[in-house]
Fold:
Amino acid sequence: MTAGTALDVRVAGTQIVFSCRPGETVLDAAERAGYALPYSCRKGVCTSCAATLTEGSAQVPGNPPTKAPADGVLLCRAVPRSAVEIAPTRIERSEPPTRRTMAATVHKISYPAPDVAVLALRYPIGKRVRFRAGQYLTVRLPDGDTRNYSMANPPRRNDAVSLHIRRVPGGRFSEGALAGLRRGDQLTVELPFGEFTVDHDSTRPILLVVTGTGFAPAKSIIEDLIARRAARPVRLYWGARRAGDLYLGELAERWAAKHRWFGFTPVLSDPDADWTGRTGPVHRAVLADHPELRGHDVYACGNPAMTAAARDEFHALAGLPPEQFRADAFLPTGPAPTH
Structure:
């Protein structure tokens, strides 16, 4: 390889070929070329972008080169060292992303649960940022580090943003900076990111499987479907430890009462004695209701253990094709790891 030479990336089993610039990750090159690959954290933690390297060699900064054949190559971090061929779980044609960075002003902070804050931000007057339901933004900290938060508002409300933030003990933003924010303060945000978005070309029923503040992107998706006057069947399974952790459960119940195509199933893993609803792991409730999933599109968001278990068990036990499963695993978003 000659220094400064772009390298080809081929996608196995397709005619897709795109160019990767020196030092550019496969994910960034794919986006620039107009292709969407699965991803979530973009920091090599969540494994949403993991693919098989079928030919060539690639390297994650700080690690030895990886030579084909190799599974579990993280495309958000992998930089080709030669022409490569990859086999991702999914690749689709998409417009190259148009992201914007701006100062957003704190409008309101509310606490629907003791450990969950709803942070309402407004963009400068006259500024709007287009995004798709289910995507996320990054909040930039003073030292340049970032934190990722899904947008809970629907895309039609693109002059402002609503974030659901769970307090993480010791968290620099969720427990530190958030406590000091006041109305009128400003945060630097960049958006949009993410491929946890609905395939509107599909007519298959949708299952949304979430834990905790994974409800935030689900809320954006559901309110977008309501605005589109959708009639496609949608069921939300929301897992939590206790009833109080379903911090906007009444909103989901109102959707279910108003829209015949929408259903809501709360599932608690550690319920109080008076709980009469579903219990156990939320993905197991899905399997109990849907032992056959080939005819569904599944969107799982929240605890990474849940999204991984859902992916594996829905495929192995219920026949869900991998391309009909999308996940957004909520993980700590500190500096990118080197291992």
